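Write out the bound-state structure for zinc ion.
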Amino acid sequence: MKVKLLTLIVLFAIFATGCNAPDNSSQLIQKYDAISKIMVRNALTNRTGYKWLKDFLKIGPRLSGSPGNFKAIEWIKNKMKEIGLDSVWLQECKVPHWVRGNVEKAWLLNNKGEKIKALHIADLGGSIGTPPKGLTGNVVEVSSFEELKMLGPKAKNKIIFFNEKFDYGEVNTFIAYSKAVKKRVYGAIEAAKVGAKALLIRTVGSSYDNKPHTGNMHYAENVKKIPAAALGAIDSDYLSSVLRHHPDYKIKLKMNCKNLPDTISYNVIGELRGSKFPNEVIVIGGHLDCWDKGVGAHDDGAPALQTLETLDLIKRLNLKPDRTIRCVLFANEENGLNGGKTFGKYAANDKNEKYIAAIESDRGAFTPRGFSVKANKNVLKKIQSWLPVLNNALIDWIKKGGSGADVGQIKNVIASIGYVPDTQRYMDLHHSANDTFDKVHPREMELGTAAIATLVYLISQEGL
Ligand SMILES: [Zn+2]
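---
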């Protein structure tokens, strides 16, 4: 109660001293510094988004086309109404519909064909299954695409084991990931080109366990489709050492995943209308779908809810944004990006509104670090001048860089921005069974909400 009263007094004092743009930057910093400190304190104290997350994740996995996906859409829509947003609507889009099925097995067989060990695999999203009785073959290990291409006839009818390790020496885990993930996305195409009958990749992630990371993979036209799965890191090392002594050992794979006809999903959209410039729009969002091994707590449950809580935080502090703040929880980021593409097209054709900024939260909900901004020099400079205010929520830097897969589809925007928390633990759980509610820390998540809310409020009042 005391905190609430104090908040109101401080906010009244801020507005009483002048709502108009202050004369110089130090006055501006002072004004927003006070508001942002209240945002940080309120987010940390109430933990609203964190409480939502606990409830939201009870839905389970939310991959496009799954029952969980439709439940998540309903949950978000109802939450937007509960917050009391000025408008809430759904935007339909077509999405792929891949199902994992209930058989996902691999065994190591000795030279007599006896099963000597069950291995931990995760089918890659989009993969075809094996024949119902499974598929057995000799294994060839490679660690790069170059090695794979050089195999020639040696790969014919074999199972390719692509055992490229995650680069633990790289400080930025997203850079290490972007190098390692190519085998997941394109491995099946290249393996099929040299005549392989299946692909097993070393899991793409930084955790050393047997909870393999799944994720999207591609086939190419006129190249045979072969089943593809990821193998746990511990089992990958085990398999590699066994093959060194027993190159004649085989693997048996049994997978019944499949691709069903495309289906529909929805972007869930809710907004607070701007009081002075309602036609100037700031988009904030993350994606509501997730892979099905965990429940997508960090990818992208908590980050998506940070953007939704931003609206609630602004509302509960009774702030009236000058510009419209539109939260979009995007469909189908993981295996098609069709939600982002649909919204991008809608924004491009939306002649009545001007898109000022688009901010995405899709890099986990760890401790805030910075904002990565795609904009011209002057806009970047303006945002960078707000760093002392954003520092209240532990933002240390604002740099030129990429934003996010979904908001990146909005081309007619002045600034496209990615929220960047600490990256060290993200790839331990990304797309795996490790991505669960207990991995999210309430303070880290709420500081991120406060960081995003501070930036959004600055843009809404100061423009870009
Ligand atoms: Zn994501």
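---
Residues 321 and 457 are 7 Å apart (CA to CA).
The longest helix spans residues 25-46.
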